[in-house]
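Throughout this chapter, every protein is written as a compact record of paired, labelled lines. An example of such a record is reproduced below:
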Amino acid sequence: MSTRKLILWALVCGVFILGAGTFKLWQTSGSDARVILLQLGDSAVLGDMTVSVQTATKTETNVLVDVTMVGVEGADAMSGWRMLSGGVVSEAVEAPITVQNSCSTTKQSEVVECVIAFPVSQGTPTIAYIRAGQQEQWATTP
């Protein structure tokens, strides 16, 4: 193959790559990907569970989050909770012994009020709950 043909094929490939990039940019420019942060006390329905973050308190060893949950009988109440703070996502940890109302299981028709504990971290925490392929987030100011 001659040099001219190689240069011509390189130009054709470049035009195809430029066209694909332009199409992808056009495709993503129309998406409305906004993150909605709920406020403390706001409820959210994720699948069959209704949850709410009431308060968040930062101690020396933990961030303690008061939550309410209702909708599923016997589900693990600590499952699905995450905290984003200081660029780090943390999962819930075992609550300290001094916490009186630590979470265990949820109920279908009775509101469960309990405390979820997270490791202490720098920054203002954002609390997230993930269930049934959905996620909701609460802004906090402990």
Q: What stands out?
A: The mean pLDDT is 88.
